[in-house]
Amino acid sequence: MTETTANAEANGSEPAIVLPHRGKAVVLFALAAVACLGLAALAWLALEAELVLAEEPEGELVVVLGGVLVAACGVAVVAAWQMGAGDLERMKAGTMDPAGKLATRCGLWLTKLLVLSVIGLGLTVLVRHLIDLWQVYVLH
C-alpha cells in the first residue's frame, strides 16, 4: 500500500489512483540510446579509418546504418527524457508509485550525460575540421 492510498484511507476518502512507476523503462531507453550511439560511432570510425570506403556498396550500407542508428538514438533519448521527467513530476505530485524513483533518476541522468557527451563530441569534431581547414587554406 502506498503512502497516498494509506492517507486517503485514514481520512475516510476514496483512495487516489496511483500509476505504477516506469523506472526500468526509462533506464532501458537510456541504455538503448547509448548502444545506438556507440554503434553509430563504430560505423563512423570504420569510415574514418578507411576500413570501409564510402564509395563501395559496403560503405554506403555503413553510412546508411550509421544514420539510422543516430536517428534511433535521438528517439530513445527523447523518450527517456520525457518519460523520466514526467514520471518524477508525477511521483512528486503523488500520482505515481515512488518505488521507481531511483531507477527513474538514474535513467534521466544517464540520458543527460549522453546528451552532454554528444554535444562535446560534436564540438570536438567541429574544431578538428576547422583546424584542418585552417591548415589547408590559410597555412598553405
Task: From the structure above, extract its key features.
mainly alpha
User: From the alpha-carbon coordinates, what is the Rg to the nearest angstrom?
Assistant: 22 Å
- What kind of sheet is the major sheet? none
Strand content: under 5%
Number of domains: 1
- The residue-averaged pLDDT reads 85
State the helix count. 4
Ends distance: 73 Å
Order of helices and strands: HHHH
**Count of individual beta strands:** 0
Shape: elongated
Describe the structure.
The protein contains 4 helices and no strands. The chain is 78% helix and 0% strand. The termini are far apart. α2 (23-48) packs antiparallel against α3 (57-93). The chain has one domain (21-137). The protein is mostly helical and 140 residues long. The longest helix is centred in the middle third of the chain and has 37 residues, at 57-93. It has helices at residues 3-11, 23-48, 57-93, 101-137.
